[in-house]
Predict the structure.
Amino acid sequence: NRDAVAAINSLKSRDSSYSLSFAVDYFLQNFRPPELECLASKAADEYLAKRDHDCLRGFVSALQFKAIKNEMLWFKAYFDKHTISSIKVEDYQSYLEKPKNQPNNRRKVPKVLSPKTWNNRRGNLNTFCLFCVEKGYLSDNPIARLPKHKQRSHRGTAETLTAEQAGVLMEYLESYTGLTGAKKRTSKHEAGFLVPFFALTMFAGIRPDRLDGEISKIRSKDIDFSTGVIRIEPEVSKINEKRTIKIQPNLRYWLEKYPLD
């Protein structure tokens, strides 16, 4: 009786017109308890291990995995000793709205997340919670009830080099060995070793990130002088789509003089 009275008072306090029997029926029809109780930190570690494996297989880039790892480390610290099923939608929202002011973080953290940052972090949490649903740690995905924010594009016109500026740069690169300044030591590089990098990125539009970008994955076999094209395979492309790039006369000159290998 006491439990029934408390439940009815709880409904009334929220101005609900539904009866206790309706609330119980609705609960029994819709509630699906998680199959396994799991600490949030343990679930985050399991998810990180999976994404690390995905990174090794090329399903996610190293840059993506770094963002996921940072998010999960902060998530573990924030929800320390909580079970994953006990974290509510409101808790996730408070977590996203709270800045990451860590002691060793020297960067100035904004008090309010930009729409892009919010959506990126929400996306990381969304895939994490979907993983928890698959594992049976959650009955449903709470992140699905968090809003996405509309983003305004602030991208302006890209700064470009003139033909004269590009000429000066390429002339400099032909003699550059990797060392500058008065105290030059013996270089391990031959003069012109950076020419293919700049020729491909400037004259073919190859994405230039040397660690994870297209330039780090392209090989000599992808450059076909007989047909005059560069083939960017899906595993090389940032957007996972194959494309071909016409080799312009100036690019052919540089790549023939300074072969990619």
